[in-house]
Amino acid sequence: MTKVMQVKKKNVDLAQLYQDVKEALVKENYKITKDDVTGFTFHLRAIKTNVTRIIVGAARDIELVIAGEPNNFAVAIMVGAWGKNIAISSVTGFVIASTVAAPALAAGTLAAAGSFLTARAFEDKLHKDIEKLVEARSKAEAEPQSPS
Q: Does residue 116 contact residue 82 with C-beta atoms inside 8 Å?
């Protein structure tokens, strides 16, 4: 899943915004696995995963790109690993179904659907958090005051 937001006329320090997002992810116990800054492009990848998180559909792989200039930039957020979770949940359901019964396959399918919804909810929350950071870091030029 990917979300892209275009931001114009906010005069945001992109390096500071990137640092804020990175710090927020670290506070959420994400491990930063990629951290590249080139000119006006900031790119990070972060993961939060272990076997238990994968099985219950809570594993996350986040990729974030901030690119542009302070008054005209884009933020792309990609939340992944849910596809892997769907496969693992379905396989788990299939293995159990072949040894127990068809209801286990249904359970695997429901777990996969839950994984998708969990990833989607997380992506939406991250998007809103970044919007708040953009507003907080905005240095939009004040309206010129007319002399009285």
A: yes
- Over the chain (148 residues), what is each successive 10-residue block's mean pLDDT? 88 95 90 92 87 62 92 90 45 44 44 55 84 86 49
Q: Which 8-state DSSP code applies to residue 9? A: S
For the chain, what are the domain ranges? 2-136
Coil vs helix vs strand at 143: coil
Task: Report if pTM > 0.85.
Answer: no
The rounded distance, in Å, linking the Cα atoms of 56 and 46 is 19
